[in-house]
Every structure is written in structure tokens, then in C-alpha cells.
Design a protein that fits this description.
Length: 193
Amino acid sequence: SSDRNSQELADRLAAMLNLNLQQLCGPKCKNLKVKKPEKYGFEPKKLVELLTDLYLHLDCPEFIACLANDERSYRKELYDTAVARMEKSTIKTSMDIEHFKDLARRVEECRIKLNKAEVDYGEIPDEFKDPLMDTLMRDPVLLPTSGTVMDRSIILRHLLNSSTDPFNRQELTEDMLKPETNLKKRIDNWIKE
């Protein structure tokens, strides 16, 4: 259980970092305007610097996989934009910039492998797909409030923002999720074939 907890924590942290990178480097970053930014200490360049520091400090194969597996916010372009911003300003040493470029390259390679693995599975049976993301479920759980089955990682990400069942808005918490062990076995067997 502690392995699963640390995996969930790593997934959540990766999703949070990618989401913040999207806010700071994505297409809508120009909307991040604050009146009197100095009053609030709002410095987007400094935030990019701190955010990229976190990526570099957490750099390990397991975390790279979590970053690449984040289907909600991961985009190669965000990492490219972060690199361009670091190169344009003097917020990072050239060594740190090269390290971040290498990290971005490894995340993208991992993402490509993940996409290829999904293609290699061929047509995924509907009962094995998460209803929100339309991706193969690896750890299916039952939402007792609606009777819907979802992938644990996807519903946990939803629960970070809202303690509700996404299908009927009834209250839902992580401890209410019920593992679907029989379905998981069938999915695992299908993958092995």
C-alpha cells in the first residue's frame, strides 16, 4: 500500500508541476497579468525558475515516467517554451538549462513509448477504457455513488479539485473507492495476450 501511495503522490506531484508549467508557459500565460505585481511579489520569471528547479531536483526515471504519463497537462511545447524563457533571461546557468533540456527530451521519449504501447494494444475493449479519458484502465475502481468504474489515477486527480463523483456530483472521497480486482485481472490478461 505504501508503494501505491508513493506512486499516487508522484503522479499528483507530476500533474501539479505540469499544470503550473502550462499556466506559466502555455498559450494563456499572457492572461497572467496582475496590477502592481511588485506589491504581491508576482514575478513569472522567478516562478519559472523555481518550478524548473523542482523538475531538476526530482529528476529520476520514475518521476520522468510520471511526468510523461500526465495526459491532462503534459505538452512537449511547454518544456520548449520554458527552455526558451530560461535562455532568454539569465535565470538559470547554462548547465541547468542543458539539464532541463535533457530532462524534457527524456520525458518526450517516455511519452512516445507510452503512446506506442497504447497503439500496440490495438483496439481496447470499451469495458477496459476509462470513461473520462478514454484510455486503458490499469487500476480500475468502482465509484459507489454512481456505479461507474474509472481508473484510480484519473479519479484521484479529479478528487484533488472536487470531492464529487464526476457523473452525478454526489459527495465522493478516496476511501469510498472500491477496487475492481476481477476487472483488473481481465485487463492484465488482455495486455499479456
